[in-house]
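User: Teach me something about this protein's shape.
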Amino acid sequence: MPERYIIEYCAPTLAAIKTGNLFSITVCSWEEACREAREINLVLGRRGLRAVPVRRRGNRALIYLYRPAFLKRDLLDPDAAEILRKRGYCPENAKTCLIQLLRHLSRDDEFPHEVGLFLGYPPADVRGFIQSPSQGVQCVGFWKVYENRDRAEETFKRYRRCMECYRHAYEGGKSLEQLAVQL
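Assistant: First, the predicted structure itself:
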């Protein structure tokens, strides 16, 4: 299991301060990517997390690690729901939304812009990116910020501190399961 990648790229999701993260791993086949996701789910499923293989390109597989309860909450946000409806999603059903997103991610060469809603990004920033990826950007961190720069920068600091703390704890002997907050 790619524990180091999960710690490095998904610490805020493990800590329950972010909805989800994407990370990639080296694999030989789609079956191997699915096996890795199953292993992750065996360890982290008890902590309210879920891993789903998204796509494979060459020897790299993209995995989405997320908190289903947070995703459901985020997609029902009125601003997020409006964005999703305009893009053909039914935000009242998070599972159906995820399946639709996974189809886009596996088939399309480019990431669908609404992916930010599945990662816990503010709907206003996702909307700003959809409208104009390069115009109106106030700052860039874990995502491009179009509104509320101060709040976003504070969130970026929290994510960085979390990643650093999790990295140190993992290097100090804490297991992945011990680091995942249970809700």
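Now, about its shape. The beta strands are 20-26, 50-57, 60-66, 139-140, 144-145. The longest helix spans residues 149-171. If you'd like, I can walk through any region in more detail.
User: That's plenty for now, thanks!
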